[in-house]
Input
Amino acid sequence: MTGSEPLQVTLLGATGSIGTSTLDVIGRHPNRYTIYALTANTNVGAMEDLCVKWSPDYAVMSDERSAKDLADRFQGRDVKTQVLTGEAGLLQVVERDSVDCVVAAIVGAAGLVPTLAAAKSGKRILLANKEALVMSGKLFVDTAKENNAVLMPVDSEHNAIFQCLPDCLTTHHSSVKIANQEAEVGIERIWLTASGGPFRSYSAEQLHDVTPEQAVNHPNWDMGKKISVDSATLMNKGLELIEAYWLFDMDIANIDVVVHPQSVIHSMVTYVDGSVLAQLGNPDMRTPIAHALAWPERIESGVEPLNIFDVAQLDFEQPDLDRFPCLRLCYEAIKMGGSATIVLNAANEIAVAAFLDEKIGFTDIAVLIEKTLDQAVITKDVSSLELILEADAMARTITNKCIAEMH
Ligand code: NAD
Ligand code: MG
Output
């Protein structure tokens, strides 16, 4: 790395939790990384501060109003950043030849189009936006492969698994394929660890009454609101199951979820010789981000070293699919195939937003997803972006209708 030009990074979702952690790591290595573009939804104040600090070539805001507001704030000041708008702006800062690396950290379906564009443009992609992969599955991994994109998982579990895989699987591939390997890599199963969220030991009655404020308060990880609610319902683990299925080309029967409340083991791989490899560390997303940025090298991330004596104890439990039906629904959606995971993801996004808005209760989230999966037409062909977006839109309409009927 020494002596070469810094990598040009486009950071999608710069104002979020992953965005903030990414900038913290990048700031520690100015010789390795330069910020080419930062993007955000509508938080103009936060973006103004970031542009002043990082001086990116471009900033992208979701709508005209926020973009104009941001550009106005740069008037007469020594800020070189050009402001772009909407999907066209996102595509521009992803596809440019000068961009080496795209960090996909927009939350939800909104991240799909630019993340897929990064795959098509053959970039190094740091994938945090799991919803994009859940929606586009095969299309996304095939597109990455065809265009020699390098797909680095940032989600801590998938990053941990990546770190526990043999070099022959990770070195020469733009995406890892565990199944159908010629080499005898001997991988038997992969384990996704789950913290169990803030309501791990709640009864069904207690779950009924939880508030948005309680749900966004995760015991181990500091994250955006949507993923915090997903962690509380275990939908996050279900989405990660689907993510692992696509990323590692692994039969779902060979992927296990284990509740591990300390969140110190970030995931594990079991080999045929009886070895189980695990990646451990403090629960801080700067570790997987630093790994994904620098791989195959390693860089300092700012994360405190793990004090194994302070941890003292590691616990493991089976997940409870009755109290946490969202995880069960994810297994079912994978089995249904076709557009089912797209429908599930869309219904979840609408339901979580309604819960955060106090329009529905916590346990209604799973009820609404199940209703939407029942009512939606599950289509087989999801091989194009258009078909994926169609299935997504149809599911959102159904979930919204179901919410309206509840009132
Ligand atoms: P967040 O809510 O903190 O940040 C989301 C970012 O996306 C913000 O910059 C926001 O401005 C932008 N954004 C939101 N809606 C948008 C839209 N419609 N158009 C354009 N930009 C939009 O979320 P987060 O916790 O940083 O999570 C980001 C992604 O990373 C999610 O997909 C999440 O599942 C995944 N992830 C997060 C963590 C974590 O620790 N936070 C861990 C693993 C995976
Ligand atoms: Mg995760």
Summary: Residues 13-19, 40-41, 43, 62, 105-107, 110, 128-131, 155, 221, 223-224, 226-227, 285 surround nicotinamide-adenine-dinucleotide (ligand 1) (CB under 6 Å).
